[in-house]
């Protein structure tokens, strides 16, 4: 009888401990953040096309874009882009359609496309920087400091690893021109496909603004032609 009672006590103890052990095991199985960011930066440097999004919540001093949603290609070294954006100028926000083709930027605010001189095109947004390995997405990921893998999550249907850290303003500048401070960063990279970058959220000091950058349809064909 004593043996049976002792067995029941041991069994109850095991049942109580197992859930905690399972949780600890799952947490411990998350990949090293340094390995993930190194691989993701390498993968990002090889991206030639993507669907690209920027969404700004709050205010980021020096950055006049509230939203971008479009397609981007750097195939063959020629950068092309098309989509829509919300741009703030002189205190007013305007939604525009844009096309960047053959080095020329076209903007349409509702009355037809207008040609933006090359000298002013980057003031709107420097699309060429996004996929540039030295100053775009790859540079942002490569420069993350104090990186830590904190969770495994699904982002827009993609199984991903969630990584937190800090990003220096120099590494942010390619994606967020005019950003004048470092930021806390949360990065999601795919669990497969070379840890492709899926999403990044940059939180600026004082919670003044958050910029969310998303990539999807990576390396899918993108055709950009000048508007007629």
Short key terms for the protein model shown above:
228 residues; 6 helices; disordered N terminus; outer membrane lipoprotein receptor (LolB), chain A; alpha+beta
Largest sheet data? 11 strands, antiparallel
Kindly report the oligomeric state of this protein: single chain
Number of domains: 1
Question: Approximately what portion of the residues adopt beta-strand conformation?
Answer: 35-45%
CATH class: Mainly Beta
Compute the number of strand runs.
11
Strand line-up across the major sheet? 6-5-4-3-2-1-11-10-9-8-7
Helix content estimate: 25-40%
Q: Please give the CATH architecture.
A: Clam
Structure description:
This protein is α+β, with helices and mostly antiparallel strands. The protein has a single domain, classed as outer membrane lipoprotein receptor (LolB), chain A (Clam), CATH 2.50.20. 27% of the residues lie in helices and 40% in strands. The chain has an eleven-stranded antiparallel sheet with strand order 6-5-4-3-2-1-11-10-9-8-7. A hairpin with a 2-residue loop joins strand 4 and strand 5. It is globular, with a radius of gyration of 23 Å.
